[in-house]
Specification:
Strand content: 25-35%
Helix content: 10-25%
Order of helices and strands: HEEEHEEHEEHEEEE
Shape: globular
Number of helices: 4
Largest sheet: 6 strands, mixed
Structural class: alpha+beta
Length: 219
């Protein structure tokens, strides 16, 4: 984690969530692998959008924003926010599910597909994982096939408005098939990697895969 932020994180929040992982909090033991119910097991539906982070809200303007994409790729790049807006864009609608037990239906996004960014940098065959680093020092990780799923995007708008700072603006990752801690806010670097590297919450007892339908909340 970036040393600039050490000591500023809400230690009590982190300790509480680590205890959740140890105790298996919110686990129901009833996975719905058939998708008969739109709401994953152990979740409750909300209509607002709760704000969750590690206790830091970085202030990054669109004018100053840069996204670095590197690692096991043939053409590493650093993109300004303007560069991102010049790439092909999509609008998307999906449900999101947080490990803290809330789900929100039908979120409308605008942004750049992960596959578009992959085409830009051309990952090498050795790339098997994708690692995210955020401006608040947060990190998380997914398998490359999870990142390159057809519904994954880097979003800069939500519900027709620029993504707010508290929800990760100017740019955040959106991986709707996984618990939302995998969708890093304020993302500043995407690294295609040969080897996996557990991120902030994964190192503190959270599941490495994070499938809400089989309740992969904790290891």
């Amino acid at each position: 984690m970036d040393s600039r932020f050490s000591g500023k994180i809400k230690d009590k929040l982190i300790a509480a969530k680590r205890k959740w992982a140890e105790d298996g909090r919110l686990m129901t033991g009833a996975p719905d692998t058939e998708r008969a119910n739109r709401l994953p097991p152990g979740q409750r539906l909300v209509t607002d959008w709760p704000v969750l982070d590690i206790g830091i809200t970085p202030h990054v303007s669109a004018d100053d924003y840069q996204l670095e994409i590197n690692g096991q790729v043939r053409k590493p790049v650093t993109l300004s926010f303007s560069d991102l807006l010049d790439l092909p864009h999509v609008t998307a609608k999906n449900d999101i599910h947080c490990v803290t037990s809330w789900s929100r239906y039908e979120n409308h996004w605008q942004g750049v597909l992960a596959t578009t960014l992959a085409e830009l940098v051309d990952p090498l065959p050795a790339a098997r994982h994708v690692l995210f680093t955020a401006h608040d020092g947060y990190t998380t990780n997914v398998r490359i096939e999870q990142f390159l799923d057809d519904d994954v995007l880097l979003a800069h708008h939500w519900e027709g408005e620029p993504l707010s700072e508290e929800h990760g603006g100017p740019l955040r990752v959106v991986i709707p098939k996984l618990y939302f801690w995998k969708s890093a806010k304020w993302v500043k670097k995407i690294t295609f990697a040969r080897d996996d590297k557990p991120g902030f919450w994964e190192e503190r007892g959270y599941h490495n895969n994070a499938d809400p339908w089989t309740e992969q909340r904790y290891e």
